[in-house]
Request: fold
Amino acid sequence: MTTTARTSLTGTDLLDPARTRLGFVARQLGVAKVRGKFAAFAGGIQLHFADPARSSAEVTVDVDSLTTGNSRRDEHLRRHFFDAAVHPRITFRSTAVDVLAADRARVTGDLTVRGTTRPLTIAVVRTGALIDSEGSSRVHLRGRATLDRRDWDVTWRAAVEGGGAFVSNRVAIELDAVAVRAHGPLVG
Reply:
């Protein structure tokens, strides 16, 4: 692998599903952290190294691919929190990129979950960018955001009505992504 000029890295890059993790962390019962991820997704980034504010990102996530390491909890989350039968996809489409430094930005976009679309801002760090030995560009990004799941109606009605606070309303969104040069649109 070799590093190269930033202008060579400008273009459309698709998320590499084998090297990308789209995850979340929430507190359960006020004590334990539950970590989960989505295994099936598609999307990518349009990079503009000369004018980074023109960069963009979009991703579509398959809710049924949610996993936390506990199949019973996974089914409960898919069914009761995400209502995957009615809302099988989560989408994010950027609307603005605020460059903070050469390798840091705030990416704001529209996050749609359970049919509700609201803005979300993700702090993103570019930790690496290169052209590999086969001539493909690769960019590594890490991102994090915190949201209130109730803003997207990601709730369990029985828990709310019964007064039980089993899962924190604050959820951390974590992104650890590798994007590889593509030829075509970001999402099919």
